[in-house]
């Protein structure tokens, strides 16, 4: 059984050499630090909620991961590793029964001890409320407490992404006390190394050390391993203006500044008070196609869009220097186990208006309006949209650029009558099955026999060694049916004070293990 | 006089009712949805619909309006969708930075604009007048966010004497909190001073040419007394008006400045509420701001009574 468990661990979220490099924790220095100090973190804004189950927003995950924990998490190689679970689960031979042993003596911030009842109640809440939990609920036959420290999840069919879903930190399967999980959440009570002391909306979120915290033994290992409570406090301060965040980093007011425009890189270099932190690569922008209704419901029209575009020009307009982006048609960067070029040959960065015109004519969509829904919430979305619009006009599309605020975009994209393409982005997720584009219910509504065949095969394959080849088939299907166009890879820029130690570039930065010199 | 006050008061009530209705309708017909924002980018349409139902946003508009009026009648502005707390309490939290920012900005603007405006008018056509008029034009044209960033660059980054942004951490003293307001108050004060200066100058010019000023001078009265006691007092009404309007604008939220400096004031509350479509907060904040506008205007009208007895008739 353990061999099987180990192989599940190996392949479910096998990471990359580069990510290892990016993620290596300076464990020696962590040990050497003395306790104390406050880490001031400037964030992009105020989180919409402190309930990590109900939101998929990255900011919610970044903050709440310090006070809520999941059964599993990701190590520095993006493998699933236990957190509140004692070990990786025992999985039955048919891949349907997961028996999860819990760590003993783990206490919540209110002093109560975590039991299997809390875990069962939390997982049920997750399946009721969280979008990723609801996605999972359909294949879960039951969740039960075996004893005070053991939980059993029974599935209707094998579902390979389950552990990654249980490990993810947004729309997260966090563990709460059974008695403190009302909705909406009144009081965040978790098991994390830090607990919420005070939240003053738009001013700060103050976290202080949870004195009853029981860390895993050993060394820090990405999001897994030991979580050391070195600093006394972590303060998340919303600084919505990007220029102010840059100045806040340079002035030394903030120890860590998240989400900076990449143009600020050179300004941050050579400063005594701060230094740039580049997460390379961070994520991928995507043009999502409305496959359900309108001009983009025709495959030839979608192919025409892809043929017309110059991804290189779009990325250059959006990110400037090639230091901050990479042309890459594959859904994952080279160092990921999921990287494959399958299906991408001759389907990327074409900028061929004549061929696109022919495809558009074949689709019978010439002269029909093509509505591109975008927002300036993320300036790079808008810049890419502007460049794309020009290329698409050359190919004969009647482009209507609909620039709205993010709240309007998130509402409009749910109505297939209102748009043809919308622009979004995603960090590289440790498990491909979490990609929104693959879901039939996500805006875009890609639902074809080929999608079902390839995605179902990928999700139900219990043998980790076989999953990368199955992912290649999914990627081929994406390139064959164009439910979206991946524009490329881009990097994320943050800044940190030289006084701040133990913080590594990560898509969702965390500050346990951090220390202030 | 009592009749005048009552008339103005009745007008206030009517204006507020119109504001309540307009705010409710505009907020609801604007695109965007708090449920989508709260649930994040990967939420399904089903999740959004179920949260909308829980928030009562799926009810007919008329029903929502009647419920809203009922709440208002009880003095309840509702509960913020995102902050999980009463709107009134969220607004009360934001009152301090906005109040002090308004006071400081007005003080800075008045200290710059009124004496300079008076002297410019007195020395009409002089080099001083021309220079200050040009500077006022410049100040009126500078975007406050740009001036804010310049101030941050110089005082916070280069000199390191003032904070870049925020309003102090947990347990920050009043002095620390007020220290965070210096740069935004200067940015707003300089920009606001342009309008006040131009009004002061124009109003003084009108008055300085009047017969009673010539009479005062012919009686041998000193220039300072002529300008300050006779001219300035009579020039006050337009100056009070512009001061009142500036105060109302600042109270309603120096939105851009608060965003640049990361100040948790009324302006930033309104901005984040609009971006998240937090309907109760948008409605509540706009109502409070509208009420403040109306009250400030009412107070200015009352000041007119004190300054110019002719207003009573």
UniProtKB/TrEMBL annotation, chain B:
Keyword field contains Transmembrane: yes
Principal localisation: membrane
Subcellular location: Cell membrane
Keyword Ligase: no
InterPro entries hit by this protein: BPD_transp_1_N, MetI-like, MetI-like_sf
Recorded topology in the membrane: Multi-pass membrane protein
Transmembrane segments: 9-30, 99-122, 134-157, 177-197, 235-261, 281-307
Record Pfam families: BPD_transp_1 (PF00528), BPD_transp_1_N (PF19300)
Xref: Gene3D superfamilies: MetI-like (1.10.3720.10)
Keywords assigned: Cell membrane, Membrane, Transmembrane, Transmembrane helix, Transport
ABC transmembrane type-1 domain: residues covered: 95-304
Assigned protein family: Belongs to the binding-protein-dependent transport system permease family.
PANTHER family, sorted: DIPEPTIDE TRANSPORT SYSTEM PERMEASE PROTEIN DPPB-RELATED (PTHR43163), PEPTIDE ABC TRANSPORTER PERMEASE PROTEIN (PTHR43163:SF3)
Protein's UniProt name: ABC transporter permease
Originating species: Alsobacter ponti
């Amino acid at each position: 059984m353990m061999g099987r468990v180990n192989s599940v661990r190996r392949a479910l979220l096998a990471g990359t050499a580069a990510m290892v490099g990016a993620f290596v924790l300076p464990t020696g220095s962590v040990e050497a630090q003395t306790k104390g100090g406050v880490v001031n973190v400037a964030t992009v804004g105020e989180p919409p909620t402190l309930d990590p189950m109900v939101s998929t927003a990255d900011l919610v995950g970044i903050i709440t991961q310090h006070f809520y924990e999941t059964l599993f998490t990701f190590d520095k190689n993006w493998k699933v590793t236990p957190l509140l679970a004692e070990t990786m689960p025992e999985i039955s031979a048919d891949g349907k029964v997961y028996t999860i042993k819990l760590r003993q003596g783990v206490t919540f911030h209110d002093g109560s001890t975590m039991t299997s009842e809390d875990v069962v109640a939390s997982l049920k809440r997750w399946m009721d409320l969280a979008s990723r939990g609801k996605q999972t609920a359909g294949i879960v036959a039951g969740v039960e407490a075996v004893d005070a420290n053991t939980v059993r999840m029974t599935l209707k069919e094998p579902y390979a992404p389950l552990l990654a879903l249980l490990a993810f930190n947004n729309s997260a399967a966090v563990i709460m006390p059974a008695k403190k999980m009302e909705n909406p959440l009144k009081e965040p009570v978790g098991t994390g190394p830090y607990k919420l002391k005070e939240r003053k909306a738009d001013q700060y979120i103050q976290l202080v050390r949870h004195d009853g915290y029981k860390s895993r033994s050993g060394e820090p290992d990405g999001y897994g391993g030991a979580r050391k409570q070195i600093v006394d406090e972590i303060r998340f301060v919303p600084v919505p203006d990007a220029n102010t965040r840059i100045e806040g980093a340079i002035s030394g007011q903030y120890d860590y500044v998240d989400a900076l425009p990449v143009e600020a890189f050179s300004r941050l270099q050579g400063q005594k008070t701060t230094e740039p932190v580049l997460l390379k690569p961070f994520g991928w922008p995507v043009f999502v196609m409305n496959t359900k209704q309108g001009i983009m419901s025709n495959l030839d029209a979608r192919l025409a869009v892809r043929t017309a575009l110059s991804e290189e020009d779009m990325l250059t307009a959006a990110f400037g220097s090639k230091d901050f982006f990479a042309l890459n048609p594959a859904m994952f960067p080279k160092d990921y186990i999921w990287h494959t070029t399958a299906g991408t040959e001759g389907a990327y960065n074409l900028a061929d208006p004549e061929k696109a015109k022919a495809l558009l004519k074949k689709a019978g969509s010439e002269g029909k309006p093509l509505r591109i829904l975008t927002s300036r919430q993320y300036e790079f979305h808008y810049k890419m949209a502007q460049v794309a619009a020009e290329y698409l006009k050359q190919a004969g599309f009647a482009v209507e650029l609909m620039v709205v605020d993010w709240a309007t975009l998130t509402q409009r994209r749910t109505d297939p009558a209102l748009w043809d393409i919308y622009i979004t982005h995603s960090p590289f997720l440790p498990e491909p099955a979490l990609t929104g584009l693959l879901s039939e219910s996500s805006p875009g509504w890609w639902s074809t026999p080929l999608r079902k065949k390839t995605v179902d095969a990928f999700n139900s394959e219990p043998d980790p060694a076989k999953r990368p080849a199955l992912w290649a088939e999914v990627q081929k299907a994406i390139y064959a049916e164009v439910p979206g166009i991946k524009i490329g890879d881009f990097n994320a820029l943050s800044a940190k004070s030289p006084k701040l130690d133990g913080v590594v570039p990560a898509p969702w930065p965390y500050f346990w293990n951090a220390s202030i010199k | 006089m009592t009749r005048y006050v009552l008339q103005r008061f009745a007008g206030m009530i009517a204006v507020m009712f119109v504001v309540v209705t307009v705010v409710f309708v505009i907020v609801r017909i604007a695109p965007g949805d708090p449920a989508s924002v709260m649930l994040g980018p990967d939420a399904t349409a089903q999740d959004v619909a179920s949260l909308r139902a829980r928030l009562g946003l799926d009810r007919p508009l008329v029903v929502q309006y009647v419920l809203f009026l009922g709440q208002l009648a009880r003095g309840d502005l509702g509960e913020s969708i995102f902050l999980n707390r009463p709107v009134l309490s969220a607004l009360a939290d934001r009152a301090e930075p906005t109040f002090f920012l308004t006071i400081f900005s007005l003080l800075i603007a008045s200290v710059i604009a009124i004496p300079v405006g008076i002297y410019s008018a007195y020395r009409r056509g002089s080099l001083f007048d021309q220079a200050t008029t040009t500077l006022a034009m410049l100040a009126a044209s500078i975007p406050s966010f740009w001036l804010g960033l310049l101030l941050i660059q110089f005082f916070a980054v280069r000199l390191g004497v003032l904070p870049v942004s925020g309003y102090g951490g947990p347990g920050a003293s009043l002095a620390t909190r007020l220290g965070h307001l210096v740069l935004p108050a200067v940015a707003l004060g300089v920009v606001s001073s342009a309008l006040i200066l131009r009004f002061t100058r124009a109003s003084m010019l009108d008055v300085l040419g009047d017969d009673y000023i010539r009479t005062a001078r012919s009686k041998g009265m000193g220039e300072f007394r002529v300008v300050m006691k006779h001219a300035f007092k009579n020039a006050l009404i337009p100056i009070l008006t512009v001061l009142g309007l500036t105060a109302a604008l600042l109270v309603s939220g120096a939105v851009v400045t608060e965003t640049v400096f990361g100040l948790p004031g009324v302006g930033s509350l309104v901005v984040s509420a609009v971006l998240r479509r937090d309907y109760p907060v948008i409605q509540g904040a706009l109502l409070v701001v509208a009420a403040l506008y109306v009250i400030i205007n009412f107070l200015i009208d009352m000041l007119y009574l004190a300054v110019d007895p002719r207003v009573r008739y």
